[in-house]
What does this fold into?
Amino acid sequence: MSITRYDPFRDLRSLQDEVNRLFSTSLGRGFDDEGLARGAWMPSVDIFENKDSIVLEAELPGMNREDFELTIENNTLTLRGERRFEKKDEADNYHRVERAYGQFTRSFTLPQTVSSEGATAEYKNGVLRVTLHKREEVKARRIEIAGEGRSEPKTIEAKAEEPGTANKQKAATTNNAR
It folds into this structure.
């Protein structure tokens, strides 16, 4: 029987080797014959909301309008396209290529509060801006309250809520009025 010296860092080194292997093969970039990165690029996206609409802005620098497409199907907004590497001159010898190129697909599930009808898209200065208008029934509206009591009729602001929450609010209003 041989004596094996205990190495407390052996497991840590093997874990580090495994992580490095994963990043270099499956999660790493695929390179073509010219050493250019392919398929590793995803456009950055900002999504925000205002009172009338939800807006998606995607950065697509250096791309032409023909290089990507935008679709809405089954309440899912999909942006797909390809950023191609174009060599200016065959005599060029690149020393470093850090920008990623390749195909991309980004999909976003739309909330029930927006309508795909009347959606607009504008591409300007490398930024795609998609505007999806909210449905009328989810926008805030005023409701007049009339009835008996010492005070004048009041106006409250109500928002369309998820089904079932209106009954809870009605019960709370009834309890507060007693």
